[in-house]
Amino acid sequence: MTTADGASRWALEARGLGKRFRRVRAVQDFSVRIPAGAVCGLVGPNGAGKSTLLGMAARILRPTEGSLRVFGSPVADPAGLADTAFLAQDKPLFPQFTVEDTLRMGRELNPRWDQAVAERIVRSGKLPLGARVGSLSGGQRSRVALALAFGKRPRLLLLDEPMADLDPLAAHEVAGLLLAEAAEQGATVVMSSHRLADVATMCDHLLAVAGGRVRLAGETDELLAAHRLVTGVRLTDGVPAEIARHTVVESRTTGRQFTALIRPRGPVEGDWKIVEPGLEEVLLGYLRSPAAPPLLTAAARIDGPHGQEQEDQEVTA
Amino acid sequence: MVEFRIDRQSGMAAYLQIVQQVQEALRLGILTAGDQLPTAARVAAVTKLNPNTTLKAYRELEHLGLVEARPGVGTFVSAAPARPRALADSPLRGELADWMGRARREGLDWTDVSALITAARAEHYPAV
C-alpha cells in the first residue's frame, strides 16, 4: 500500500522479489519489509543472496521478478538515488586520491553533501587529510568510506560486511561510528555480517536469508522471544507428542538427552528445561533446517505478496 | 558520567545489563542525583550497542523512578532515591534464607542448589 504516510514508513519493501543470473536464482519469492529507522542485520550463509539483495536495493542490480521499493519509491525511479548510500565489501576508493580529494569528490557528486559530517568522521579517527587513501590501513579506509557514505546524508545506508577484514580494534571503532552516526542522522541501516555477536547487540531488526529466501525477519527481540530451547530426558523415539504440538524448528537426541528449538503454541507441557535461546542458536537452527517454516513478525510481513500486479509495473521481466 | 560494559556472553538481555549497571552505580555512589547518563549515540560509539537498546534501558530506569528524561537535553539521575532497602526487608528474603538452610541440612551442595535455582528461574523468568 502506498498512501502518503505509508510511503515513508518502510525503508525497504519487497514484494515477490526475485533475481535470476542466467540459470541461477539468487533471490526468489522474497516478500518482506524493513521499517524506517531500523538497524537491520542481514545474515545467512555465503551465497544466500545477501549481496544480491543489497545490490538491488542500491540499484546496482535490476530485479528480474516482483518489486522493490525504497521509502515507497520503486528502485527503478532515479529520484530516490540520493537517498541511498551503499558501501560494498571491498570499500572501493581511489587509492591515488588523498583523504581531502575523496571528500571533495563526495561534495561535487552529491547535491545534499554535508562536509561538516564527513570531516567530523575523518577527524575523529585522527586521519591526516593529506594522506593518500592507498597508504591507509584497512580501518582507516573504512572510516573514509563511511565519511563518504554519511556525508551524503543518506536516509538508507546499505553495508556489505562493513567489519570484515578489520582487526578487532578497527572493527570496534567502525561499528561504534556506524551506530552513533546512524542514530545522530536518523538513518536506516541494513548491514550484512557474519559476526553474530555483533549483530545481536548492534541490530534491532534481523533479516535472515538462506537459498535466496527469507528465513527470519522482524524485530530481533520479538524473533528471539518467539522461540524456546527445550531439553530433557528422551523417553520415546522421535519428537515427543507434547513437543510436536508446537512448531519444531529443529530437534535432536544425544544419548538420553532430547533437545529441540521450538516456536511454542501455548504452554509447553511435561518435565522440560525451557530457556529462551540466543540469536546464534535460533539462527543456526533455521539455517540447518531448510524445511522449518520461516518466521516473519507482524512488522516485517507483507500480506498477500501475490496479486499485487498493479504495484509491480516498474519491473518488466 | 558512567561507561557501560556489555557482556555478550552472559545471556542476559543487553538493556537489562544497562539497567543493572546504573542501579549498581547508584548504590556505589558513582552516579548521584542530577548526573547525566551518556546519550544513546555515545553508548553506541563506545560499546557498539544499538541506540534503541540504550533508550529501552533508560525508559525502564525512568519507570523505576531512578532517572528522568528531559526532552532535548538528556537523561538525568532523579533527585529522590527510590525504594531504599525495600528488598532487604521483604519477607521473601527470609523465606529464601530458610529454604537455603533446609537445603543445606538435607545435604545439598551449592551446585545442587544452584541447579534448582536455575531451573526455577527458567520457569518463572524465561525472558531474563
TrEMBL record, chain A:
GO molecular function: ATP binding; ATP hydrolysis activity
Keyword flag Transport: yes
Keywords, comma-separated and alphabetical: ATP-binding, Nucleotide-binding, Transport
Domain (ABC transporter) ranges: 12-236
InterPro entries assigned: AAA+_ATPase, ABC_transporter-like_ATP-bd, ABC_transporter-like_CS, ABC_Transporter_VariousFunc, P-loop_NTPase
SUPFAM superfamilies from the UniProt entry: P-loop containing nucleoside triphosphate hydrolases (SSF52540)
Alphabetized Pfam families for the sequence: ABC_tran (PF00005)
PANTHER family: ABC TRANSPORTER ATP-BINDING PROTEIN ALBC-RELATED
Name this protein carries in UniProt: ABC transporter ATP-binding protein
